[in-house]
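Lecture notes, unit on protein representations.

Consider one protein chain, 203 amino acids long.
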Amino acid sequence: MRVGSRERGAGEKPRRMGILVLASAALVSLAVALPGIGDEVEPTEEPISAQVQPSDDRRIESRLRATFSSIGSLGGVEVTVTAGVVQLRGEVLSQEARELAARLAKQVEGVVAVENHLTESFSLERRLDVVWKDMRDRAVRALGFLPLLLVALLVLAAFVWLARAAGRRRSWFERVTPSLFLQDLLAQVVRAAVLIVGVLLAL
């Protein structure tokens, strides 16, 4: 009986060793498959700030409102900013204007995301109102240039008179040459030169 027990004990040792080897191999495979287990998480070099300043939101709102008010098709867009998230509401006249508003909002520094709730309006009254406003702005700008235009016309008129007066001074050209042909040619050259100077000054 003791001899049989010894033989069984000797046979169990290789099996135990095999089980230990298999268990070790399974643990190694699990560690390779899950490399994140037991690893330390390293902090990022540039941590993201969790502090949001209300002044930043107000700055973004002011910038976008000023930009939209200068564009006729975006004049009615309402802007609200919360923690860097821009919300656009209102009506625009085309899909292009809707996309333009979102694109401009994304370009402002400090904007985290843009929620575009703009809808396209098909109201004829609103479209005519935008056209009228654009025409009015053009007229106001034209009136602003009116004084300069009047000054330019006065300068040009003065030089036209000088050119004609210089062309009539035959005595000036008779001193240069006795030829009538050359005198007429010189008179034309002088008139042209005076007119060119007047045009340049008017511009």
